[in-house]
Amino acid sequence: MSLIIFLLIFNFIIIYNYKKISNILNIFDHPDQYRKSHLKKTPLIGGIFIYVNFLIYFIFIVFFQNYYEDYKDLILFTKSSFNNLFLFSTLIFLVGLYDDKKNLNASLKFSIFIILVYYLLTLNNELIIEYIYFSSLNHTIFLHNFSIFFTVLCFLLFINASNMFDGMDLQLGPYFIFIFILFFTELELNLLSLVFLISLFSFCFLNFNSKVFIGNSGAYFISFLIAYIFILQNNFNMKISVEEIFLIMSIPGIDMFRVFLHRLVKKKNPFSGDRNHLHHYLMQKYSLRISQILLLIINIAPFFAYQIFESIIIFGITVLFYFLLYFYLISNNR
Description:
With 334 residues, this protein is mainly α. It has one domain (2-242). It is built from 15 helices and 4 strands. The strands form 2 sheets. It has a two-stranded antiparallel sheet. A two-stranded antiparallel ribbon has the order 3-4. Strand 3 and strand 4 (139-142) form a beta hairpin. The longest helix is centred in the first third of the chain and has 24 residues, at 79-102. It is globular and about 55 Å long. The N and C termini lie far apart (54 Å). The mean pLDDT is 90.
């Protein structure tokens, strides 16, 4: 409880002093009149705020060693697993922070992520996905020699999909909030989830009117941490099924694949920026607030639909709905 009170006060101070902090850090996103819709330079410090909350939480864990023992039955809280999570999420955060400041080459970033994730798997083989069990079908797919490749791919896909999904105010923040609510209710990662929920709600308060963006540092860091937890829980207790994980990640993932294919067809770098994402088309037809609400509903609806029908067919319906919505939007925008 003392940690939560401290973080509430800490985040209140950040919200009140975000302009001063922004000027000190001097990391801004500048409008380019093409891919970015904001009209003035905006601080890219939301990810820094959220990471500092996580850092405070880690320090709390280190100084209260009995916390490991109290939660030893949970998937995350072995010392080695949690320390690996902190170390590699920090490295991912630093890559994103440098990218926000210096604009790293996309291929170089991709290579760095591959190296970091692969090295993580060599340190913690409990993270390696050796099979995929579909509970709705009662069917298991064993990956055998493809286990490491598939695990690395899962990390990379979600990191990139989340980063590409960050395109308008209150888009990525509420999506992450939804996931951490699931971590709180389904995985019993209560304190960790509360730390991120406090920091994410604080970020959303500032992001509501484009006062602060989450930046690549926040998108990469949080998506890596989420992927880490999803994979670890899938390998041990499966309180959140493979189908549910797919559906939670479905809309950002489908949008990423469609955009990648579109760029390849146009003979462009698949990692280059454009205004061809779902949120761009939503904002062309609807107001910003309506687009934000629609996108949040679209993101969480597949998960809740699965709770009712418990069928893998929901994933197919999600893909179909996405493309019907996409073609509807582009036809109207024309």
